[in-house]
Amino acid sequence: MRSPVRAVVAVIVGVAAVFWLGAASARSSQATLRSTSTSVTCPSVILIGQTGTCEAVVADTDTGTATTPSGTVDFSASSTAVEFSGTPVCALSSAGSCQITFAFSAFGPETITASYDGDSSHATSSATQQIEVTACFGCGFRFCRVPRVIGKPLTHAKQILRHSGCRPGRISHAYSKRIRKGRVISERPKPGKVIGPNAWPKHKIHLVVSRGEA
Question: Between 108 and 81, where is the model more confident?
Answer without folding.
Answer: 81
